[in-house]
Design goal:
181 residues, alpha+beta, five-stranded antiparallel β-sheet, 5 strands, elongated
């Protein structure tokens, strides 16, 4: 009577174990990736909710009539971002960067008499020790777009959103009417 395992049986068992282990390890990695995406989405949604509330409170209190386009950048007329690649740090949530990409009235115009503004907000959860961050630096670190003639800020934002690293939200903000100032 024969006892033990043959070499072939051990090899087959090893292959079956390896395939099973790799499948479980792949599921573990996918779970970690989805957990990170879920965490970033939650952080971005909370940041957008807070930012929209802050912009809503301050919008229209500038003491002068402002065009909606003046809110582009940080969302606050008093502290604009002039560089189209620059992102503003959101101090309430460290590691969260944002930019008001577009701000118009509800019809898409830049009417300074409007009280309702359509705001497109870009949010990037990005933990860094740097005090400033721009889209060029993010592109350099991640190598998203090969700069052929210089990548545009819109292209970089779209690529970050497409890859699930950045988030774009739209909101309607009602500001204090000019006749109440």
């Amino acid at each position: 009577m024969r006892r033990g395992f043959t070499l072939i049986e051990l090899l087959v068992a090893t292959v079956v174990f390896t395939v099973g282990f790799m499948a479980v390890f792949g599921l573990f990695l996918a779970g970690m990736r989805f957990r990170k995406l879920s965490e970033d989405t939650t952080r971005a949604a909370l940041a957008v909710s807070s930012l929209v509330a802050e912009i809503r409170i301050n919008a229209g209190s500038e003491g002068r009539v402002c065009k909606p386009s003046e809110y582009e950048g940080t969302g606050f007329v008093s502290s604009p971002l002039t560089d189209p690649f620059a992102l503003a740090a959101y101090p309430v949530q460290p590691g969260t960067w944002y930019r008001v990409v577009r701000c118009t009235d509800l019809t898409g115009r830049d009417d300074d008499g409007t009280t309702a503004m359509r705001v497109t907000l870009f949010v990037l959860p990005w933990s860094t020790a740097d005090s400033t961050l721009d889209l060029k630096e993010v592109n350099k670190r991640l190598q998203l777009i090969t700069p052929v003639g210089g990548a545009q800020a819109d292209d970089l934002r779209k690529e970050l959103v497409k890859r699930g690293l950045g988030f774009e939200y739209e909101a309607v903000i009602t500001r204090t009417p000019s006749w109440q100032r």
